[in-house]
Amino acid sequence: MGRYQKENYTILDCFLDTAKKNPDKPFVVFEGQTYSYSEADRLSSRVGRSLWEHACVREGDVVALFLGNEPSYLWLWLGLAKIGCSAALLNSSVRAKSLLHCFSCCQARALIVSAELKSAVEEVLPTLREQSVSVFVLAQACGTEGVESLADKIARASDEPLSPALRANVTLRSPAVYIYTSGTTGLPKAAVVNHQRLWGASCIQAIAGVTAQDVIYVCLPLYHTSGFALGFTATIERGATVVLKGKFSASQFWDDCRKYDVTVVQYIGETMRYLCSTPKRDEDRDHRVRLAIGNGARADVWREFLHRFGDSIRVTELYASTEGNISFINYAGKIGAVGCVNLLHRRAFPYSLIKYDAEREEPVRDHRGLCVEAAKGETGLLVSRITKVAPFSGYMGDLQQTEKKRLRDVFQEGDLYFNSGDLLRIDQHNFIYFQDRVGDTFRWKGENVATTEVSDVLAMADCIQEANVYGVKVSGHEGRIGMAAVTLKEGAQFDPIGTCGQVTSYLPAYARPRFIRIQDSLEITGTFKQMKVKLVEEGFSPDTVSDPLYFLDEKEKSYVPMTRQIYNSIESKDIKL
After folding, report:
1. What is the pLDDT of residues 211-252, one digit of tens each?
2. What number of other Cβ atoms are within 10 A of residue 8's Cβ?
């Protein structure tokens, strides 16, 4: 633990030490090309020097990164860290209003975009120029006014080490990255991840048993905590090797593992299910993978994964959130669990499961106004006490949403807890199980979807008056898929083609409501909150929903009437969601 506690010794410092000790050790492998630790050191120095000179960013500034998985992503962050800057990791799927919001809320001075995503930035370029934002594209040249090329500048820059004086005031509590998480606001929130929290992610990888000899396959997006912190930066401490994949591919996954001698893989529930759904092959167990680290694995899929790809693989399921102050690791390997109650862990990071009223969407409180602890075996809302050891840094530029995650007067007047927004359960043997999310967010395809953002997009359609968005279960799938109950404007007819165009233009694929039901009015509570519980329970079956019901048919580029045949095809997985 000495490295974590050493004053202001960051992951960057660890990287620089590793590059000196093992300069020729492979650090990153991408599409057959290998970069050593020393090469990464020199490349990131070029990046840092280029941004210092051409973007005029200085210690404490924020630079937004808008690109997919590629080695440049890693050099950019290391280079920014070398000059004392932090990076805002923009989701490469966001567009238009969401893109501007994500950029603005972290108060970034500059934006770096890949050539593939340049057109998305050009859509909002007038606004960025009004805000005097420097925009750079990772290309040798650029003909767009207001956008500068960066790759050519990096190529010309010196790769000499950058002076530590450029980051002299950076501490472990300084922001390292801003990672976006969806929530009840309807727009993504920028969670502040400081250098201390990056060490925490590194610790999780160490507890899972990763060593310097491991080769780690990172196919999850680098703009998420799993890919960036648990995959990339956590690898640095051990001096291991990262095999970076541009995008997850179930058909190429094991071929890549064999080709690059991968020993550790990352997963989320959906990726594990996709792997189990691929056609069986004779070489399914022919690999060197010994460890899988991730979250969201359903018990049945977990069993199938081990049965098919090898019982020798150790699956280490964990529970954590980007902004949260509590995490669990299932080091015992109990199938389906996210962890186990550990008294030392609970003493250091006090947490509890409390009774939660799903109808009222709030914790249950007793006659004293205090929360009530859930009984063993009962599902409850996870809350974790906010302390110096377990702080909650909140969201950049959003005090209102930061305050919403703080729960006061939990077990005694004046105490303060972090509200995870997640429902968990502890069984009689003290194993901890994730049950569901609460509030106005649901998870689909490994992404959190804010219902109010989707509602706002639907309400922009000419025919729709109001929308109530929620997630519904689909058999055989992790998470919940998007559905919306909508009312129509007076005298208007539902426009299936126009509405489809609206959601596909403004929402990433995982956030688009696949089902729409037309209602005369939306049911609300006494405090004017939209009622979702009954709608969620009724789902999307035409047998249980009497309202007009539609399905998003992407081939037809339209919402089509929901039929029993479509429903059966979804249940049998003939229709892929």
Report:
1. 999 999 999 999 999 999 999 999 999 999 999 999 999 999
2. 15
In terms of C-beta distances under 8 Å and separation of at least 24 residues, what long-range contacts does 195-199 make, across chains too? 195/10, 195/11, 195/170, 195/171, 196/4, 196/172, 197/229, 197/393, 198/10, 198/11, 198/229, 198/233, 198/234, 199/3, 199/4, 199/11, 199/172, 199/237
> Residue 177 and residue 225: Cα distance in Å, rounded?
10
Which secondary-structure segment (H or E) carries 262? Answer: none
Tokens of 451: 């219902």
Q: Which long-range contacts (CB under 8 A, 24 or more apart) does 542-545 make?
A: 542/567, 543/567, 545/517
pLDDT 10s digits, 492-551: 999 999 999 999 998 999 999 999 999 999 887 554 567 788 898 899 999 999 999 999
Distance (Å, whole) CA 215 – CA 211: 9
- Going through 409-463 in order, the beta strands assigned E by DSSP cover 416-426, 431-437, 441-444, 447-450
Q: State pTM to two decimals.
A: 0.87
Question: What span, in angstroms and rounded, lies between the C-alpha atoms of 529 and 71?
Answer: 45
Contact 160, 141 (CB under 8 A): no
Give which of 204, 199, 160, 186 is closest to 11, Cα–Cα.
199
Domain boundaries, the chain: 2-247, 339-437, 441-571
> In angstroms, rounded to a whole number, what is the distance separating the alpha carbons of residues 450 and 183?
5
CA distance linking residue 232 with residue 28, whole number of Å: 9
Write the DSSP assignment of 319-380 as a string of letters: E--SS-S--EE-TT--TT-SEE--HHHHHHS-EEEE-EETTTTEE-B-TTS-B-BPPTTS-E
Pick the CATH number of 2-247 from 3.30.450.20, 3.30.1230.20, 3.40.50.980, 3.30.590.20: 3.40.50.980
Q: Which CATH class is domain 441-571?
A: alpha beta
Strands 464-472 and 481-488: antiparallel
Label residues 24-44 b or e (16+ Cβ within 10 Å = b): eebbbbbeeeebbbbbbbbbb
What pairing do the DSSP bridges indicate for beta strands 26-30 and 241-244?
A: parallel
Q: pLDDT, tens digit, for every residue of 456-477?
A: 889 889 999 989 999 999 988 8
What value does the CA radius of gyration of the chain take, rounded to a whole number of Å? 24
Q: Rounded CA gap, 279 and 256, in Å?
A: 16
| Residues 186 and 456: beta-carbon distance below 8 Å | yes
Taking every pair of C-alpha atoms in the chain, what is the biggest distance, in angstroms?
73
Contacts (Cβ under 8 Å, ≥6 apart) of 430: 340, 341
The answer regarding whether domain 339-437 maps to CATH 2.60.120.260 reads no
Dist CA 348 CA 329 (whole Å):
15
User: Helix H segments across 239-285?
Assistant: 250-259, 269-277
d(CA 402, CA 408): 13
Residue 133 has pLDDT above 50, yes or no: yes
Least Cα distance to 442 among 433, 432, 452, 457 occurs for 452
